[in-house]
Amino acid sequence: MVQPGPSPNPQLTQQFLSSVLSQRGPSSLPYAEDTKWLIRQHLLALATAYPSLEPKTASFTHNDGRTVNLLQADGTVPMPFQGVTYNIPVVLWLMESYPRHPPCVYVNPTRDMVIKRPHPHVNPSGLVSFLYLQNWVYPSSNLVDLVRNLSLVFARDPPLYSQRRPAPAPAPPSPSPSPGQGFGLTPSLNSGNYAPRPAIPPRAYPASPYGAVPPRRRRWGLAADPDGGPERGL
User: Can you say whether residue 149 is alpha, beta or left, with left for phi > 0 and alpha for psi between -120 and 50 degrees?
Assistant: First the structure.
């Protein structure tokens, strides 16, 4: 299971947001001045309701090559599934037009995960689309309600699955075992010879046609999806 990161200190989160949203000049974030207070409130409420999602700033590259520094919420969304709560890694990008327009939401699989294909709400690049985003209404729509609805959507149809790994070949028996050892002993669970516990519900499926999905961190952009689907974040 993906473990959520340590809970951010609410006071530090408040100081961070106040600092980055009050900057002026070339280093200022590209949000309208009359929306910055609401942006701050949305992210503070999100960090309080979902401490696993941490507000950050990161570079985002647009299709035309422009790079801008934007706010994001990076972490995991809880997903109840068959009596167990899993943590789905996601990134919520607050684009320049936020909060008048919804954020861009991506699932952010680790190397051991693959995106379910097809999925009704997640394209192969990880871009999320569902009713709450499509019906975003300013100023009432907000990040807390978005994540709450996203958790319910994922619970009905999990977007990620653990990548299956081949079982390690058994070690040949030693011809002369050392004292205390026997032949054909099974390695302990802590020996590192076993694949880790699945991060999300297991499911029988063929090998991923595109291999392990590298984690997307910090730098994201939009590029045409090689499968012909909607654009994706890099």
Answer: alpha
| Contacts of 153 by beta carbon, 8 Å cutoff, 6+ apart | 121, 130
231, 63 contact by CB (below 8 A): yes
Please give the helix or strand (H or E) that residue 221 lies within, else none: strand 220-223
Q: Is the dihedral of CA 96, 101, 103, 104 positive or negative?
A: negative
* Closest alpha carbon to 115 in 60, 63, 54, 157: 157
| pTM, full prediction | 0.70
Peptide bond into 99 cis (omega under 30): yes
What confidence tens digit (pLDDT) does each residue in 157-205 have? 999 999 876 666 676 665 544 443 333 323 333 434 333 334 454 444 3
Contact 155/80 with Cβ under 8 angstroms? yes
Q: What does the pLDDT look like over 58-84, one tens digit per residue?
A: 999 988 999 999 999 999 999 999 999
Count the residues in the chain. 234
